[in-house]
Amino acid sequence: xxxxxxxxxxxxxxxxxxxxxxxxxxxxxxxxxxxxxxxxxxxxxxxxxxxxxxxxxxxxxxxxxxxxxxxxxxxxxxxxxxxxxxxxxxxxxxxxxxxxxxxxxxxxxxxxxxxxxxxxxxxxxxxxxxxxxxxxxxxxxxxxxxxxxxxxxxxxxxxxxxxxxxxxxxxxxxxxxxxxxxxxxxxxxxxxxxxxxxxxxxxxxxxxxxxxxxxxxxxxxxxxxxxxxxxxxxxxxxxxxxxxxxxxxxxxxxxxxxxxxxxxxxxxxxxxxxxxxxxxxxxxxxxxxxxxxxxxxxxxxxxxxxxxxxxxxxxxxxxxxxxxxxxxxxxxxxxxxxxxxxxxxxxxxxxxxxxxxxxxxxxxxxxxxxxxxxxxxxxxxxxxxxxxxxxxxxxxxxxxxxxxxxxxxxxxxxxxxx
Length: 418
Fold this sequence. Notes:
Shape: elongated
Strand order of the largest sheet: 5-2-1-6-7-8
Number of strands: 13
Keywords: Transferase
InterPro entries: CoA-transferase_III_domain, CoA-Trfase_fam_III, CoA-Trfase_III_dom3_sf, CoA-Trfase_III_dom_1_sf
CATH topology of the largest domain: Rossmann fold
Organism: Acidovorax bellezanensis
Order of helices and strands: EHEEEHEHEHEHHEHHEEHHHHEHHEEHH
Number of helices: 16
Largest sheet: 6 strands, parallel
Pfam families: CoA_transf_3 (PF02515)
Strand content: 5-15%
CATH class of the largest domain: Alpha Beta
Helix content: 25-40%
GO molecular function: transferase activity
């Protein structure tokens, strides 16, 4: 799939929604990219010269046609497609006035400054809601707008540690490589972006009946606690603190990776029917009749005895051979891919999950590659119409839409307000 996909010509779900994006790094930009993918007009406001921090978070950097690193960090491209970038100095009075004018015409503002950080610029919720009562204003912070940690800076890694996620991720103490681990992706930032976009869509829908916008207080710590999901539910139900178990599921068996003749294979058996089919496929149907293994609860209780039987057997064939054996028998099984192998997977390719946009800002860089949005709406599909923008690429375009003429824009540049 590319930017010229048929979805680009169909109506967008959020067409007509204007978003003023004052956020940086990942959680806020992930939220606004979601809105942009759904068709909202997202104006990304960046600092003159420096821009969003993630423009410089490399390596890895994008490469030019000769295979040489540029100074454009790949990180930025992950969460800023479909947006227009303008540069405004919000510390400058004229920059503040510009942003207030934009907020007065916007449907949504998203920001992730520290608590109260935008009040000095007249860009806080109370100031902007007075100009635009229909405004939906979303603040994203590490710890929320109140509580003893409200003034603290919050980062994904810190919250992964504080919320307990790292305590249930990684191998158990005493095992090789044992100890708490962070996830390989900044999952709290990404989940916060997703929760924030959901909250914004809810607020926009509520506005249809009330005519009023509202304030949304999103906190990384709140999200971190929420996404503990079954681990939190287990603790709250029993009072027992869950621990790390590597790739083993605490409530399902067999649901983990196994060593094969040439690597590893992942089995994700989630019910008794799947286990019976697994046993039949490996010519051990009696396992499914054994009282120790006949039900999932019994298999979890007798996990060690089951693994003692499974592990030697699974070492007798290659990963590909096991996958081939199970794939037509409704036994969930798969490889443990690298990222490169995942993009080479035929199902990933068939679903068009790698997308590209040509660059149009004259920088002669190769097309920007990205990952497709996984939401597939039949009537109002996701749109891919803009590559992640160059810094300030759309400043003049946006200001002209606001009614500023060339002389006024030049004056703002001379004053270093933009």
